[in-house]
Amino acid sequence: MSGAKTGKASLWPMLIRRVGSALLTLLLVSMVIFAIAGLLPGDAAQEALGQSATPEQVAALRHEMGLDQPAPVRYAHWLSGMVRGDAGQSLVAGMPVGAIIAERLPNTLMLAGMTAVLAVPLALVMGITAAIRRGTWIDRAINLASLSMVALPEFLVATVGVLIFSVKLMWLPSIAMVSAEASWSDTLRSCALPILSLTVVVVAQMARMTRAAIADQLDRPYVEMARLKGASLSRVVLGHVLPNCLGPIVNAMALSLSYLMGGAIIVETIFNFPGLASLMVNAVTSRDMPLLQACAMIFCSAYLLLMLVADMVALLANPRLRAQ
Amino acid sequence: MKRSISLLVGALTRAPLATRVAAGFVGFWLVLAVGGPWVAPHPVGAFVDQDVFSGLSARLWLGSDYLGRDVFSRLLYGARYTVFLGLGAALLAACCGTALALWATLSGGAIDEVISRLMDTLISIPSKILALVLVAACGSSLPLLLLICALTYVPGNFRIARALAMNLAALDFVAAARARGERKFAIALHEVLPNMVHPLLADLGLRFVFVVLLLSGLSFLGLGVQPPYADLGSLVRENISGLTEGAPAILAPALAIAVLTVGTNLLIDALKPEDKR
């Protein structure tokens, strides 16, 4: 505790420890993913050459692909490649995995970013409204709606969206086209349905957790004090309560946005969106292990990064957490 | 068990209308999943209509699918895969997760450290990603799907069960049991487990919702239940070309999943004892 006299002095070691712990988890995750992918019963060389290959040909290709080496050696080789940004050759496309991913990653980031821009403010408004109007019909309606939305299958949301907006009303296209030449408004229009579907999927959980965090603070004496002083409700909530629940709220946002990664798999497939998640589904179907491993690692890194950022924001926002 | 059932019935009779409706829907699906094939008007693979994607009618209640088969009958057959795989996987995940949690808590030390670290690692892999990697590596026969869905949700259950067990293990009656010289297994079974049944049941319901969503998502992607079997997710997938016509063949199975999952979720929330304000 001697180093914790001032908040600043103990902040850096703490942040470094968090980063270290996240990196260790990422290393363990890479081991798990490599181990699972190694369970594959047929091996890649046999698969690439087909049934008619002679055993000598298979053995030669196995040697060329490095499959005849023991698993730890292959793991070390794969990991050092990943760290250098070289994820190997795709077995199906015959291209470097890095090049395929580089083409898809910006699309997925754009989709996730635009969903976040729409979903985060919406969730904040829903959560804050429900918390302030606790016990009223608005709170109950938001509670019921968010509980239901959490459990909706993504493909129902997406298909109903397509049915209403592109089949009946014919406002929006049902297939998301993304190209470098298209103007911003065209891209936005063709991505509107995927973004809306993803928003429905992630907004509910965020709103629920925001409500819980704020409702918890509203019972505190300092809120009553501020109200008795004559501060308006909006001032109390925005100026006093919100900064105090920044940590839990950012955590909720990070959790939900990391869910975007998983949720995007179904939505990207339905709308033929050329993103990373639909690439991963193709990799599963064609059993393209190097591509699959790289995609899985990107999703896991994104998840861990979001959690790390949330942790850091919580640490910065609440000095009491640093005194451990 | 008897007490739980009477509690459940008591809570339901006093519950608001929405809860009873939710309970009704969930019960309805459980009954359909068990008895579906006996009430189905047509065999599951029979071609009964000249038209594909026909609308609702008195003869074919939910219309016909992309090959002219009866959607209602296929729904009744599909529901059993969704419901029973979901229940089986959720139960398996809960049993494994809780057993590991009890073992870790009561052993402490290195065993706790290793198990917790492994579960922390698994929980850092988003569930759909983990399931996809597992499907790619192992394939997707029905027993494998059950195992994959269960494995995917073990870490989540472990985390909750361990937190509950840690709190309980610090209490006096557990210390007394240890002092009496009881074995770890007996302490886990007789002292700790009975006190965490209620929150674990709520978690089981939640896992069931997650598993059903994951499983139908996988089937929708063509990576889950494989033909000739079809669960509700596969029904959505095979009829996707009917979307532009707004065919009931695609909306009915998707809605059926939503009724099951949303109903379960609302029911769990209504039965939660501590959160009532």
From TrEMBL, chain A:
BP terms from Gene Ontology: transmembrane transport
Keyword Flavoprotein included in the entry's annotation: no
Record keywords, A-Z: Cell membrane, Membrane, Transmembrane, Transmembrane helix, Transport
GO cellular component: plasma membrane
Domain ABC transmembrane type-1, first and last residues per copy: 105-310
Localization terms from the record: Cell membrane
Membrane-related topology note: Multi-pass membrane protein
Membrane-traversing stretches: 21-40, 109-132, 144-167, 187-207, 249-271, 291-317
Coiled coil stretches, renumbered: none
Family: Belongs to the binding-protein-dependent transport system permease family.
PANTHER family: DIPEPTIDE TRANSPORT SYSTEM PERMEASE PROTEIN DPPB-RELATED (PTHR43163), PEPTIDE ABC TRANSPORTER PERMEASE PROTEIN (PTHR43163:SF3)
Protein's recorded name: Peptide/nickel transport system permease protein
From TrEMBL, chain B:
Cited SUPFAM superfamilies: MetI-like (SSF161098)
Keyword Lipid metabolism set for record: no
Keywords: Cell membrane, Membrane, Transmembrane, Transmembrane helix, Transport
Lineage: superkingdom: Bacteria
Gene Ontology terms describing biological process: transmembrane transport
UniProt topology in membrane: Multi-pass membrane protein
Domain ABC transmembrane type-1: start-end pairs: 79-268
Transmembrane segments annotated in the record for this chain: 21-40, 83-108, 129-154, 160-179, 200-226, 246-268
Signal peptide: none
Cited InterPro entries: BP-dependent_transpt_permease (IPR050366), MetI-like (IPR000515), MetI-like_sf (IPR035906)
Subcellular location: Cell membrane
CC terms in the record's Gene Ontology section: plasma membrane
Family as reported in the entry's similarity comment: Belongs to the binding-protein-dependent transport system permease family.
Name the record gives this protein: Peptide/nickel transport system permease protein
